[in-house]
Known about the structure:
FAD/NAD(P)-binding domain, binds nicotinamide-adenine-dinucleotide, 32% helix, Enolase-like, domain 1, alpha/beta, binds flavin-adenine dinucleotide, 3 domains, five-stranded antiparallel β-sheet
Amino acid sequence: xxxxxxxxxxxxxxxxGLAFARTAAxxxxxxxxxxxxxxxxxxxxxxxVPKKILWAAGRTARSIAQAADQGIAESSSINFPALIRKxxxxxxxxxxxxxxxxxxxxxxxxxxxATVCNANTVVVGDKTYHAQHxxxxxxxxxxxxxxxxxxxLQNSDDVLSWKAxxxxxxxxxxxxIGCEFAAIFRALGSEVTLIHNGPNILDTFPKDLAxxxxxxxxxxxxxxxxxxxxxAIKRDDTLKYFCKSGRxxxxxxxxxxxxxxxxxxxxxxxxxxLKTAESGALAISNQFQTSCxxxxxxxxxxxxxxxxxxxxxxxxxxxHMLHGQGATVANLxxxxxxxxxxxxxxxxxxxxxAKGKSGTVxxxxxxxxxxxxxxxxFYQLIFDGKNKTLTGASIAAEGAEDLIAMASALIAAKASAxxxxxxxxxxxxxxxxxxxxxQTQE
Length: 442
Ligand SMILES: Cc1cc2nc3c(=O)[nH]c(=O)nc-3n(C[C@H](O)[C@H](O)[C@H](O)COP(=O)(O)OP(=O)(O)OC[C@H]3O[C@@H](n4cnc5c(N)ncnc54)[C@H](O)[C@@H]3O)c2cc1C
Ligand SMILES: NC(=O)c1ccc[n+]([C@@H]2O[C@H](COP(=O)([O-])OP(=O)(O)OC[C@H]3O[C@@H](n4cnc5c(N)ncnc54)[C@H](O)[C@@H]3O)[C@@H](O)[C@H]2O)c1
């Protein structure tokens, strides 16, 4: 058997590419996986994992700072370099375990930058490889802002490789990344300004949840400038940023978190000619096929939802489609998501500002609990007006990133409003409050 010819070539060993390669190999396919950087891609090396470790440290710092309220003596000092060393060692272990798994499963891994010649041919360095199927799983990168002094900006890749914590931080963009970094670095002791170009942060989230998160971030001392943007950065003896509103600020670091762009352009002319969607990502069919037969796209490079669980699910599904008995494509309406602020803000399903949703949405219950606590909890349940089945949920509370998965399962099971009346939650608990309000406000 030729060692340059495979059943499938996969470009990119991030969440999507790894899921595809592992599953396809389990199904008996000969898989060739190309990666130019570290195994694990964005999520493991410069995304979810390093971010969540910092988030967990920030949560601990906040708990210690609030301990005095509970009669516990307060004392905290953060050794940032030690935290980063521990985090990076953990990430190195994950990468090593990926390498072992791929070897065990017989996936051929090639390190280097891939260029696509046609639907069946890929070049890495001076070698050419062939396959029946080609899977593009090249992910995305931070979008470069085109402003005066852009060379002074840092991005999420830079933030997650910092060895020291900046004292004064300005962040441009109030999406997931901007809000999470703002919350984390504030919790770790930095002075933070967040500059967002819309009327409120987290503008892809249900409005009430986004406003709740915004006021929570402000309460921690983060300065949030909405309907504003940075137009220029200048460095002389200090780093200065100039805003559209006329405001000016100084910071040790200015971070651009204004969005991400799919990695399409570096793959060669053949891929550049594939059809893209409005989002800029590759347009795909409901079988993940791009505009060229035999060429597939999964993960952030494809026009889906740029989240790890979607990349992983789609990679697994496509492997079953190409090398197994087929599989059902993950329903994006059931994908739960969380912004890791404090407390985490999570939602799933239809929202009061969801795009493309039809029918009536009736928020049955909405409440702010624990007025005396530092982090009031928030929830919102959306029921289909006619059938009173649960179609959406928002939660901002300690543990919301886990609770929201239960809401997703209830939506999948088409739970009715009665499910909340029939079930008896724990006392005293957050669930107790929102179950009983659902019952009384129906
Ligand atoms: C700061 C941050 C925090 C995040 N937090 C979360 C979170 O908490 N939860 C969540 O669900 N999602 C989160 N995300 C999003 C998540 O990381 C992505 O959705 C996910 O990693 C996408 O996986 P992927 O496999 O599509 O792409 P990637 O993981 O980006 O992998 C693509 C791989 O392709 C390689 N590649 C690209 N071009 C080539 C080429 N020409 N040749 C060879 N190799 C190539 C790249 O080096 C990379 O390793 C976060 C993202 C960021 C940036
Ligand atoms: N917890 C998570 O699941 C998580 C965390 C991080 C990232 N992600 C994924 O990564 C994707 C990218 O995240 P992101 O936060 O970079 O992008 P984003 O598109 O979610 O948010 C960017 C925000 O920046 C604002 N913006 C753009 N240009 C601006 C400017 N010039 N001035 C001020 N504001 C500006 C936009 O209005 C937008 O709200 C997300 O959509 C998400 O899918 C997920």
